[in-house]
Amino acid sequence: MSDPDVIVAGAGAAGLWCAEVAARAGARVCVLEKTSRCGTKVLASGGTRCNLTTTLDAAAAGRLFGARGERFLRPALRALPPAAVRARFEQWGIATVDAPLEKVFPESGRAIDVRNALERAARTAGAHIEVGAAVAGVARTGAGWRVELADGTRRDAPNVVVASGGKSYPLTGTTGDGYAWLAALGLPLVEPVPALVPLLSPAPWVHELAGIAVQEAELALCDASGREVARRARPVLFTHFGLSGPAAMDVSEPVARAPALEFTARIDLVPDRAREQLRDAWLARAAQPGGAGVLGALNDVTRAALPRRLLERVVAQARCAGDARAAQVTREQRHALVEALKGFAVPIRGTQGWDKAEVTAGGLALSAVDAGTLEVKAHPGLYVIGELLDVQGPIGGLSFLAAFATAELAGRAIAARVRV
Ligand SMILES: Cc1cc2nc3c(=O)[nH]c(=O)nc-3n(C[C@H](O)[C@H](O)[C@H](O)COP(=O)(O)OP(=O)(O)OC[C@H]3O[C@@H](n4cnc5c(N)ncnc54)[C@H](O)[C@@H]3O)c2cc1C
Questions:
Q1: Over the stretch 73-114, which tens digit does the pLDDT of each residue have?
Q2: Residue 284 contacts residue 297 (beta carbons within 8 Å)
Q3: For the domain with range 198-269, which CATH number is right: 1.10.287, 1.25.40, 2.40.30, 2.60.120?
Q4: pLDDT digits (tens, 9 = 90+) for 8-56
């Protein structure tokens, strides 16, 4: 395409969405994609089902990005709330369904339908997409921007959107190329680290619990001084290397930022029951005739919600004898059992890293970007959207929501600039 109004670097979730919005509004859009196909990460997402947004409203979804992220995303989520993401996909022929944990999936359960819809919509709107076109750099010219390609060729346009994604799952094509381009322009970057990633535990007993999933759990991540640094109520999964599942992955960023430091994951295994309720249930059970053992009594007190292997570790953590009778348990031991149920301690050190991280935390500092247009301040015509920004939410369709919503605003802003 000759003389595009805008070049979009990266045909992922954000790049395709932005291309569609800008092209539909009349801009001449050229998308350059490094790999041989569009939206590879979309294809891999949600276990190939693609959790494309959330059932939460814009305000509740925004809060999940933390105070800074919430503030930054406010205009974007106002322009494109989660319900509008669904409506847009429905318009493109992709029916969506609600799922547990506030997730939204395509009714077909196929991520490929989502990817195809995004690509088709961008092309139908008039965007020109080139695959196998790796961008190597972005530089300012007198009139706008020059995009340098890895094959040595150059393209000029008055506007450039950098939508090359983060560094996680590098096999999908996102290898963090955009950070170097932004750094070369002198823009401030928050160090990118793997996030939404499983946690490693150095303790062999944790690995022995592999396969146990606790659906109703609340995990508090504490640093070596005992200070709580993150918390999330979501399922937890014990694995051969540590902890996974949404609760563990959602709190992973602080661990990734300090991979050599010790953390403790304190897991509330019975979040729906207060300490006093557990204590009263224990006392009632211990008083029953028949002399229940500690493990049997714990099983009753927790309403058979936890597997025996895990209860054995709870007993060990409370320093009780596994073969003791419930009636023999002292007041201190009872207290320790309740504490072990409400704050089961799992030592954590490090994460599974880039290869297993769903997203990248860190990226272009939000202070450098106009939240209303996604234009980089003091760099007219340069826009940065999607995962490349220093904004990160938990698992649950929030990453796509942020990618689409920032893309929406950038697409609109570029179209408005082109019309002037
Ligand atoms: C396994 C997995 C599962 C996930 N599941 C979900 C989920 O269910 N729900 C959810 O909300 N989020 C999910 N995510 C996160 C989500 O996929 C990303 O946050 C989202 O894709 C980010 O969109 P983006 O457009 O910024 O980046 P990407 O979608 O990664 O797109 C970036 C594009 O830029 C291209 N590119 C990179 N470098 C260059 C270059 N030099 N030149 C040209 N093109 C380049 C890449 O090839 C890619 O196509 C998942 C991530 C992973 C890895």
A1: 999 999 999 999 999 999 999 999 999 999 999 999 999 999
A2: no
A3: 2.40.30
A4: 999 999 999 999 999 999 999 999 999 999 999 999 999 999 999 999 9
Residue whose CA is closest, atom 4 of ligand 1? 45
Question: To test ligand 1's pocket by mutation, which of 399, 404, 409 has the most ligand atoms within 8 angstroms of CB?
Answer: 399
Assess contact for 226 and 345: CB atoms under 8 A: no
User: Cα 199 to the chain's mean position, in Å?
Assistant: 14
Q: Identify residue 216 by its one-letter amino acid code.
A: E
* Closest residue by CA, ligand 1 atom 17: 41
Mutate which of 56, 131, 164, 351 to test ligand 1's pocket (most atoms within 8 Å of Cβ)? Answer: 164
Give residue 410's region: left, alpha or beta (phi > 0; psi -120 to 50): alpha
CA of 348 to the centre of ligand 1 (A): 28
Distance CA 93, CA 250 (A): 32
Tell me which residues have their CB closer than 6 angstroms to ligand 1.
9-15, 32-35, 40-41, 44-46, 50-51, 134-135, 163-165, 168-169, 173-174, 177, 358-359, 386-387, 397-400, 403
Half-sphere exposure of residue 110: CA atoms within 13 angstroms, side-chain side: 6
Look up the CATH number of domain 6-194+358-419: 3.50.50.60
CA of 366 to the centre of ligand 1 (A): 19
- Position 74, amino acid: R
Ligand 1 centroid – CA 166 distance (Å)? 7
Going from N- to C-terminal start, the domains of the chain cover: 6-194+358-419, 198-269, 275-342
State how far the Cα of 245 lies from the Cα of 51, in Å rounded to an integer: 15
Alpha-carbon distance of 105 to 97, in angstroms, equals 5
CATH class of 275-342: mainly alpha
- pTM score of the predicted model: 0.96
